[in-house]
Structures are given as C-alpha cells and as structure tokens.
Design goal:
single chain, 649 residues, seven-stranded mixed barrel, globular, Acoase/IPM_deHydtase_lsu_aba, aconitate hydratase, AconitaseA/IPMdHydase_ssu_swvl, metal-binding, Aconitase/3IPM_dehydase_swvl
Length: 649
C-alpha cells in the first residue's frame, strides 16, 4: 500500500516508536522556529541545559511579536535574543523584518523537511511539503539540542480539493469553511493533507493561509504536496535548487476523507468569540463595524494585500472606520510600495503599521469597547485583541476591504465593481538579508548573552510528591484558551522573560482574584484547577503552563486537553488528567479539597487513579495519557530537571 505525503514525512524522520495512530513516536527535527514571545524562554532553557550549539540543519529566531517599545523591556529582550542567536548558532530576524511564518517560508522552508516551532501557527509551513508542528518552547529547545520531538502518531485526514475559487472568494474562505464544518477541536491528533486536482489552483501563499489555521481546527499539522507551484514559489525566492517533488503515492489512503469543492464556496466569517463560530458573510451583512484589519500570518501574501488595495483604490473608507494595514514582511512591503498599493491604502484612509504580528497578538490596534472589529487574523478568542470586551470577526481580505468602504459587514460580491485582477510583480523583491546567518562555531563561543534587568532565571521546579492534598482554586467550562489562561498583548508579553512578573496576569480574564489566592497557598502544597472540553486551545506559549506552575498548580483535571497545552503542562511537572466519567465535572466545586494518595506509585502502575474529595464522601476517577518517558520527567518536576540529570550523569 502506498503512502500519503504526511506518512512519507513521518517515516523519513522516525527515530522511535511505531506509526500506529495514538502511539508515541520520536521524530528527528531538521529546522526550528522561535519568535520573541516564546524564544526568550527557549534561549534561557538552552542556557540552563548547557547547550553549546544548535544541532539542527537550520534554526531561526524571529522578532515579530513584541515590537512596541514603550519602555526598555522589549528592546532589552531583542538584544538578548540577538546575542543568544549568535551564541547558539541560529539565524536571526530583527524587528521590522516581518512575521516569522511567511519569512521562514520565503528564506528557509524546504520540502521534505521537519520544522518544529514555539508558535502554534508553525504549521503554516506545511504549505511547502514540510511536516511543520507547533510545540512548547522547551520541546523546541530540546530539538535545537539535537533531541527528537515526541508526539502521538497522528491520523491523516485527507481533504480532496476540486474546482477553482470563484471571484470574491479566497483561501481564507476555504479554511473558514473547514472550521464551519468541524469546529475548533475535531482534528485533535490529526494531520490534514490536502490533495487532488484543485490543489494546483491554490498558490503557495494560498496554501499557507489554509495550513496556518489548521491550528484552529486543533490539528497537529497540515500538509500540502510539493509540486510545480512549490517549485515556482522557490524559484521566485531564488531557491529553486532546494526544491524536491513530494506527492502522495497513487494508491495512498487516508484515515479520514472528505472533499471540498472550491467552486461552491462563498465568503465566510467567524463571529465572536471563536474561530469555529462560522457562517456565510451574507447572514450577518449590515452590522456596523469600527475596525477593518488586514495582515497577519493567516493572510500574509502579496495577493492578499493587493486585492484589498484594488478594492479601495480611488475610494475612501467609511467615516470613523479604523482601516489597519499590517504588512507581513519587509520584502513584501517593498513590493507593495513599488506597485502603488501602499499609496492606494493611504489615500483611502488606511493606517500603515510596521511589518509584524502587531494587533493579532494584542500589540496595538486594540478595538474600541464593544465595537465590531473585522480581522484577517487567525484567532478571535476573548480579549486577544487587547480589549477585554472585544467583538472580533475573522474574514478574508476581500470582505475586510469591502466592509471598510461601506462601514458595515459586507459580502464583497455585492460591491458595485468588477472583481479586481491581481498579478504578482514581474520582478518580486528577494531580500536575502532578512536573516542574519549563524556565526562560525569558534566565534560563537566567545559571545556573551546580553541580559537586561527584566530577565529572570527560571525558578527551580520541585518534584511531584507521593501524597497530595490540594484545593480546587478555579473551575472553568469548555474551550478555555491559552489567551484566557495568560493573556498576550502589550501589557503582558514584555514580561515573557520574567516568570514572577508575568504570573501576576494569570487567569485574570477568567478570575481576577486567582493570582492573590494562589500566592497565599503556593508554599502550602499548591492547588488544582478543573476545566471542560478542549482546555488550553490556541497558542503554544508555554507561559500558560509555566505561570500557573510558578503559582503552585500541581494538577489539572479537565474533560479533554488541546494537544500543545497538554504537552506543556507535562513538560513543567503539572499532572494533566481527564475525567473517566465526564459527568464528574459536575461533582467537583471550586474550593473542594482533593486527596491524591500514593500518587507517584499509582500513575506508574495504572493510567487511572481515584481522587477523594475531602469531607464530602465523594470519589472520582481520572486518567492520564502520559508515556513512560513523560512519567519519568513529570515525577522529577519537569523536563528541565530531567535534562539536567542526564547531562550530569
């Protein structure tokens, strides 16, 4: 039986385990990606582990999230990251160069390779025939050190693509349609693979859009074939010599299969406050808006900006509309300028921002309270925009531009104009200097890490005790995102390298009293939390595990976990367990005291254990899905302690 593309990639990089869905496998990692919101901790972890130099084929550190320099914290960390990239042999992309995912795609992505990134949207580079996976920072640090990446063998979900996109419909509508069909967690422990005759009608950047938001479906990754379109893109980037063809065998099969006919799609929109809350644009047309925002890793291509430019060209956006443009790379910004698109945006009333993630992660451009904001970004979790009571809708560039003109949510097909024809520049810009190349090894050894006053050493993590008696400090419902566990944005992320300070923002969107209550009992044994379905969806930021850990979180009991957050919890010594009977979620209450007896022994002996509720004559059953390797380091207090012991043997 033949193999599909995902299976070929996994087979070529398998170093341990069997390719049986659900079994833990170890994968050799060829490339890594870190960005500044997560990379500072990765670099501190490399230092703590005593790593000398990256063992990967290519590792890159990007600065694209924390660009606002309202004080010294962010620029200090930028200098730290630059020095760490030099010290450990990494490529480095400075502030203003652009968003990590499209820049990596332009300069480093290679078909047939594996990429692990400390950003959940690393999966975007699956558009290049790569196995690209988002993970917690410490997993990426391990990969940089030459260790395999461990993950549950995913099922492969084949999506046969047919047809061709109609006018006014683009790649964003494809992935929004997938979210409309399946919601935000249906694809857990799956890799999507798009194949079929319609794939040739999707450009490399169209594929990037679709692969990027596979994260919103809960997928481990998204894979496209490496074909003539991939070759065309790499030739455009002057890297054709790195191209290889990688397609599914003719007799390849998939664990799940479905079809998406591009010709039948229409403009779609994700309503607040979930990427899975999708309806056709026509169903909400007419609602007034405050903001229309174009950019981010979920719509990073030249075409995405050029089509919007042509829609607003020679016109003015509606009165009082904030029309925000966020170029995704310095290279693209040059092309947009040369072709007159920036002039179109500005004359129409647009606001031009620097190349980077910006408002996507709450770094500026926050909308007014309670007003509708249309964004081409990948997520609309509560408060992610920087405004606590936000109303963010996710749309295509066509819908965003059309709505900016009218001042209300608008189906772009209703505009009184012909669909604009967009062609790429005849000689697109190729900026080979976007990435500073790694220093030679001997020179790198002489580099000292530049640490500003905001960088704090990672505190020691204590081992898991044998007996544990802890209160439930917080009880939550379904779909709690990492942005709700620990917000992003300009207030919070500057403390990404200072765990004691960033912990003060922990769970503030859910319960503003959590930090104070946690600190009162942190040294008395800590606490537990209870959650519902899809707990920890969204970002790979390991701070969402580290901060609660610092505050004394010992056990998380939920109905089920999002993949990356589950792994992050285990990595930092927090026991992640699920209810055997999901109805027991109703039994537990905030304030209940849980008793775990012979905990270390029982999690080794069995994947199920009983938990007593003190003083209530109640017992519930929970279970874990940890591998023997994970059980070993979770008992030691986390992966850092495990690595230290290995290095000191």
């Amino acid at each position: 039986m033949g193999l599909n593309v995902a299976q070929k990639l996994i087979k070529d990089h398998l170093v341990s385990g069997e390719m049986t869905p659900g079994a833990e496998i170890g994968l050799k990692i060829d490339q890594t990606l870190t960005q500044d919101a997560t990379g500072t901790m990765v670099m501190l972890e490399l230092e703590a582990m005593g790593v000398d130099r990256a063992k990967t084929e290519a590792s890159a550190q990007y600065v694209d999230h924390n660009l606002i320099q309202e004080d010294s914290k962010n620029p200090d960390d930028h200098l730290f990251l630059q020095s760490a990239a030099k010290r450990f042999g990494l490529y480095y992309s400075k502030p203003g160069n652009g968003v990590s995912h499209p820049v990596h795609m332009q300069r480093l992505a290679r078909p047939g390779k594996t990429l692990l990134g400390s950003d959940s949207h690393t999966c975007a580079n699956g558009c290049m025939g790569m196995l690209a996976i988002g993970a917690g920072g410490i997993d990426v640090a391990m990969a940089i050190a030459g260790e395999p990446f461990y993950v549950k063998m995913p099922k492969v979900w084949g999506v046969k693509v047919t047809g061709e996109l109609p006018d006014w419909v683009s790649a964003k509508d494809v992935i929004l349609e997938m979210l409309r069909r399946h919601g935000v967690k249906a694809a857990a422990n799956h890799v999507f693979e798009y194949y079929g005759p319609g794939v040739k009608n999707l450009s490399a950047m169209d594929r990037h859009v679709i692969a990027n938001m596979g994260a919103e479906l809960g997928a481990t990754g998204t894979v496209f074939p490496s074909d003539e379109e991939t070759r065309r893109f790499m030739k455009q980037e002057q890297r054709e010599d790195e191209w290889i063809e990688l397609v599914a065998d003719e007799d390849a099969t998939y664990d799940l299969e479905e079809e998406i006919n591009l010709s039948e799609l229409e403009p779609m929109i994700a309503k607040p406050t979930s990427p899975g809350n999708v309806v056709p644009v026509r169903e909400v047309a007419g609602e007034p808006i405050y903001q229309s925002y174009i950019g981010s890793s979920a719509n990073p291509g030249y075409r995405d900006f050029a089509i919007a430019s042509k829609i607003v060209g020679g016109r003015k956006v509606a009165e009082n509309i904030s029309f925000d443009l966020n170029p995704t790379s310095r290279q693209m910004l040059l092309d947009l300028s040369k072709e007159g698109h920036i002039a179109n945006f500005i004359q129409a009333g647009g606001r031009l921002h620097q190349a980077g993630c910006n408002g996507c992660i709450g770094m500026g451009q926050a909308p007014a309270t309670g007003r509708n904001s249309l964004r081409t970004t990948p997520r609309n979790f509560p408060g992610r925009s920087g405004t606590k009571e936000d109303r963010v809708f996710l749309v295509s560039p066509e819908t965003a531009a059309a709505s900016a003109l009218t001042g209300v949510i608008t189906d772009p097909r209703t505009l009184d104009m012909k669909y604009p024809n967009v062609k790429e520049p005849k000689k697109p810009t190729v900026d080979v200097d976007l990435l500073q190349v790694p220093l030679p090894e001997e020179e790198a050894k002489q580099v000292e890490l530049v640490k500003g006053p905001n960088i704090a050493t990672i505190p020691k993590m204590n081992a898991l005790p044998q007996d544990l008696e802890i209160p439930i400090l917080l009880k939550m419902g379904d779909d709690i995102s990492t942005d709700e566990i620990l917000a992003g944005g300009a207030r919070v992320l500057p403390y990404r390298s200072n765990l004691p300070e960033i912990s003060k923002f922990c769970f503030e969107i859910v319960d503003e009293t959590y930090y104070d209550r946690a600190m009162k009992i942190r040294d008395q044994g800590g606490h537990a939390i209870v959650g519902g379905q899809n707990y920890g969806q969204g970002s790979s930021r390991e701070h969402a595990a580290l901060a609660p850990r610092y505050l004394g979180l010992k056990v998380a009991i939920v109905k089920d976990f999002a993949r990356i957050h589950w792994q992050n919890l285990a990595n930092f010594g927090i026991l992640p367990v699920t209810f055997v009977d999901k109805e027991d979620w109703n039994v537990l209450e905030q304030g209940d005291v849980l008793q775990f007896n012979q905990l270390r022994d029982k999690i080794q002996e069995n994947n199920q254990l009983e938990v007593k509720v003190k003083g209530k004559d109640k017992t519930i059953k929970v279970e874990h899905a940890l591998s023997p390797r994970q059980l070993e380091f979770i008992q030691m207090g986390g992966l850092i302690n495990w690595v230290k012991e290995r290095l000191n043997r």
